[in-house]
Amino acid sequence: VVWELFVRNAVSVPVVILFIGSMTANALRNAALQTALTRIPPPSRRAAFLSVTGSMTQLGSAIGAGGSSVLLYQTVGANVGGMDRIGWVAIALTVTLTPMVLLLNRSWRRSGNLVGSTLASGALPLSAK
């Protein structure tokens, strides 16, 4: 979807379909990542951890918004240029995040325990669910 909209810039599929696909994929990815994040801290510290995680997410959004002003420019015809750069950054971040989450899951399965918590706390390893 990102390749089609931003890098290739030759939309052969209706934009509405691409938008729905992009939002669906993003929601699924965020739900999976949020589920993984809740397993990191012990239950007694989970609220504080997720609060800091939410703050970092908002900070990342602000940095992305500010950074996009560096990557985007106005063309002679008053159009926005540089969308291909935004597309490449989005692709790079997606390609980077996916292996990191997979490594985290693999680490949990191998150890039989969750990072920062114990089985005695009632938390189950990913492989037991």
Helix segment count?
A: 4
Question: Low-confidence parts lasting 5 or more residues at pLDDT below 50?
Answer: 117-129
> Span from first to last CA?
32 Å
- What portion of residues is helical? 55-70%
Main sheet strand line-up: 1-2
**Overall shape:** elongated
Radius of gyration: 19 Å
**How many DSSP E strands?**
2
Which percent range describes the beta-strand content? under 5%
- The string of secondary-structure elements, in order, is HHHEEH
Q: What can be said about this structure in brief?
A:
By secondary structure, this protein is mainly alpha-helical. The chain has helices at about 1-5, 15-40, 45-70, 85-110; strands at about 75, 80.
How does this model look, in words?
The protein has a two-stranded antiparallel ribbon with strand order 1-2. It has helices at 2-7, 15-38, 46-71, 83-111; strands spanning 73-74, 80-81. It has 129 residues and is mainly alpha-helical. Helix content is 66%, strand content 3%.
Comma- or semicolon-separated keywords:
single chain, 129 residues, mainly alpha, two-stranded antiparallel ribbon, 4 helices, 66% helix, disordered C terminus
Q: What are the SSEs and their pairings?
A:
Blueprint lengths: L1 H6 L7 H24 L7 H26 L1 E2 L5 E2 L1 H29 L18
